[in-house]
Predict the structure.
Amino acid sequence: MNKTTKRGFALIPVILLFLVGTVTLVYMFVAHGAAWSSNRANTHLFTSGSLSTAGGIYDTTGMGLARTSGGKRIFNQSRAVRKATLHIVGDPAGVISTGAHSAYKSKLSGYSFVSGIYGLKKYGQGNDLTLAVSADACVAAMNALGSYNGAVGAFNYKTGALLCSFSAPTYDIQNPPSDPDSLDGVYLNRLFSGVYTPGSTMKIVTALCAMENIPDIDTRTFLCEGKIRIGSGDVICMQTHGEISFREALNKSCNCAFAKIAEIVGADKLTATAQSLGFNTSIRTDGIQLAMSTFDVRKASTLDLGWAGIGQYETLVNPCHMMMIAGAIANGGQGVQPYVIRSMKSASGVTVYKAMTKNSSITIPADKAGRLQKLLRSNVTDWYGDSRFPNLQMCGKTGTAELDGKTSHSWFVGFSLRADFPVAVVVVAENAGSGSGVAMNTANAVMQSLLKNNIQ
């Protein structure tokens, strides 16, 4: 073998290493280029650690929520709008991690793999984001929730558009508190990142499990004497309902009936139903990680299982996840993922992104979804009253989540059955008492705002 051939073979490992390095470098740019370009050390985008040069953020009607002017981020002139949209818009410093300024900073910068942030340097701004939320609906949520902390969300259960996202406590981004830590979790978007004891909203899950595993559930009756013996102790009901049907038990939110149902179906089947609805599962929506809803009765006693069936025990639920479950019921059993960004335009005015509907992993057999729709509709017509939700054909379930030594959390989750208004809503009002109070009133306020403005 001559020297030239030997040298040729010697170059093969070098060439292979070069190719491997090139492929690795390209992969790293594809996988991490957006994050690298959005690093706070990039002075094209950040000033003193805060995003200063980026595209605008608008609500679904085109109302400006944030933009760059003179090297600074400028926010809507209305203090109410700034407070109501704080957690969905976010702050330029990125402390609110699920806000648009943080979660979508690479999009706001106009970064692309091909041209980097060339558009930003050429036009002085990045991509404009139009969110799905209505600022007016967020303000309606804030006003109705009043002084209570909590979370409010609404979305189109057919398309996935997130129409309202509000979290409290909040503050005015132009006049931040001197000591934000004194406000209970003010940087946390409770709709995405909060978890709560679900109270009687969990009876929706238990009801579905009953449909799946008790063939004669619709004709069975249950006896409520104000309490029921389950295992080694008693589950207490808020009232004495007497002998009631399955439908009446859900209408009146009877703890005795649903604790008994949980005992009948057992831990394994109740867990299987919960997991089919997304419990104990990591859920992302439009790139944002939701806090995990957890249901674990592996070590539960029979009494504990009874309490779990009515939404107590150790169960924790994320509000956005509960809204998605309601949406799946409303949508005939197929859940969809909520999306935050409706569309995106480049600095040159070209639409470079439009949201598309994506199914979620939450699915319910169509016949069971139809039966749940009728049950949740009867809650409103037979118990809460249609007058609480004018013109909505509303279905829903309240929850009063009991807490040791504290006032209960107030829950409402539901949806409109109007074909021209496919919207689901969730409200958690912390320490506000009965779900038929603050939570239900807030849900109606948000739905009426969206209906009035024809936003869906």
Summary: The longest helix spans residues 3-37. The two ends are 76 Å apart (CA to CA). The chain is about 35% helix and 20% strand.
